[in-house]
Amino acid sequence: MSKAFIAAVIQDSIDCTGVAANQAASDLISAIVKELKKEGGFTLPSFGTFTVKKTKARKALNPRTGEPVKVKAGKTVRFKASPNLKKAV
Hints:
The protein is 45% helix and 31% strand. The protein contains 3 helices and 5 strands, in the order ααβββββα.
């Protein structure tokens, strides 16, 4: 799924211009990112739950050279599908 796909669905759904649909898609994506930063996650009731998880610093291997590399601690987004989504798919 891409931003263009979301904009096309919005445009078809509410019969607006492509520019307005693209702006709505951008606003939706930025609102999701803002909520993840602020609250650490959010839920779409019949879709699933997005949560921010911290990752620990670790050692990994460079696939080209096989040399050990240090990977810094960071954050990642995890998704858990709702039972309704699992049944639909």
